[in-house]
User: Which sequence fits this backbone?
């Protein structure tokens, strides 16, 4: 039987040794133009089930050596059978993508199969985790399969696209929005991680150890030997690298980055706190929230909400991106983030580590959106808007006629801070407590433990 070593190797790189059981290995393609029956066997996709650290999973691996891994009727039927079993038995589905796209020689049957697969994946959303790894071309309708998954990791050689490069409309290397303003780099790939084939397989394998098998199952929490009251030296020393801060406050060695589509704007990961799996969102100091960052965070919050995982936010947001190309996308992206937090009933803890200004404060898991606990570092600044900017608006006439403008501005800014700054948020109960950065781990774990039996209101 013709099949590539790569398709099998990827499965073996994720599953426990010897645990894979193939399903549908003798299925033939419907394409009657292919002469050799051996060339059709498995119809370009290997399907089956196995275990990852003893936990059951279903997996399919597209095989470019068989009909180019192209998607057609029987190819999809095998995947649908996999989903049927996964939903019945309660286990994640792992998709290993490497496909030439739709098998156009099968015509209507192949295209209808796409639709049936999209429908099944959409219906499985929020019931079982769907995880994808892209290793080669993933174009046309296959790109939507990748996007429908909860998590997507791309290998260095992967290419995810709707149209091939020579069919795209570009202007100076930039994609065009309806308003003809540049929105994002042309050909930018959707990705939640990248690396070699081995690194992608390892990342998927590790991810299975953090997610529940279904939305009705508990998270795979573990016993922790790490002191829950351990002091955190990096935040205390003024370290502003959000990845370092997360590593410091979480259980040692427990942080698993899962997304990086927004570049350095945000850090999105799973981590354990006293053994409990928690979704973590953090922002790098001095950066503004982009539409891409908001969409990435909202999608992650949605996943955590659907699968009952607590959410911790480390907030340092002075506002939203001021780039002109962001104006088209920001309203909808921020609305998605607001909705994700507001509709979530899982435990939600917010630690304000730097600035939290205006609507960015609201969007990042604020008390008003439903955060259960809100802490602020002792040097954090929460503001309705920067105080001097507010004075220039509220006291513009007085400022214009002031003899000593700098002194007037400073005095009025201090006065405004008292009624619209951190002290005001504390006085009204919007922030529960100001904490020292060194004590962050202790307070986060305490809050999560108090919320361990939280029920939706």
Assistant:
């Amino acid at each position: 039987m013709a099949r590539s070593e790569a398709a099998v190797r990827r499965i073996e790189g994720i599953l426990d040794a010897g645990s894979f059981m193939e399903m549908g290995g003798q299925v033939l393609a419907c394409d009657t133009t292919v002469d050799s029956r051996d060339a059709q066997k498995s119809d370009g996709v290997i399907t089956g089930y196995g275990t990852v650290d003893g936990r059951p999973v279903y997996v399919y691996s597209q095989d470019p050596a068989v009909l180019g891994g192209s998607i057609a009727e029987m190819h999809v039927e095998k995947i649908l059978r996999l989903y049927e079993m996964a939903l019945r038995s309660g286990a994640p589905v792992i998709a290993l993508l490497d496909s030439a796209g739709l098998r156009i020689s099968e015509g209507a049957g192949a295209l209808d199969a796409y639709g049936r697969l999209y429908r099944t994946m959409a219906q499985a959303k929020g019931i079982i985790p769907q995880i994808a790894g892209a290793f080669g071309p993933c174009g046309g309708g296959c790109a939507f399969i990748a996007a429908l998954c909860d998590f997507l990791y791309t290998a260095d050689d992967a290419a995810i696209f709707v149209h091939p490069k020579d069919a795209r409309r570009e202007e100076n290397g930039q994609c065009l929005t309806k308003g003809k303003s540049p929105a994002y780099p042309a050909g930018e790939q959707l990705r939640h991680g990248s690396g070699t084939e081995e690194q992608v397989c390892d990342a998927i394998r590790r991810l299975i150890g953090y997610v529940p098998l279904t939305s009705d199952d508990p998270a795979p929490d573990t016993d922790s030997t790490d002191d829950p009251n351990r002091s955190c030296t990096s935040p205390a020393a003024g370290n502003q690298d959000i990845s370092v801060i997360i590593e410091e406050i979480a259980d040692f060695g427990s942080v698993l980055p899962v997304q990086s589509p927004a570049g350095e704007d945000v850090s999105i990961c799973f981590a354990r706190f006293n053994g409990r799996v928690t979704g973590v969102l953090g922002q790098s100091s001095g950066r503004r929230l982009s539409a891409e960052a908001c969409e990435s965070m909202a999608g992650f919050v949605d996943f955590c909400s659907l699968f009952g995982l607590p959410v911790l936010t480390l907030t340092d947001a002075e506002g939203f991106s001021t780039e002109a190309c962001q104006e088209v996308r920001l309203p909808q992206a921020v609305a998605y983030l607001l909705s994700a937090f507001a509709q979530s009933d899982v435990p939600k803890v917010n630690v304000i580590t730097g600035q939290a200004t205006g609507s960015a404060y609201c969007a990042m898991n604020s008390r008003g959106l439903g955060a259960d606990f809100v802490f602020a570092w002792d040097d954090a600044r929460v503001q309705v808007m920067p105080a001097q900017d507010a004075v220039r608006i509220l006291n513009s006439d007085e400022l214009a006629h002031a003899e000593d403008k700098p002194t007037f501005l400073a005095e009025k800014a201090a006065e405004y801070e008292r009624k619209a700054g951190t002290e005001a948020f504390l006085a009204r109960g919007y922030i529960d407590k100001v904490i020292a950065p060194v004590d962050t781990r202790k307070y986060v774990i305490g809050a999560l433990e108090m919320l361990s039996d939280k029920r939706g209101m």
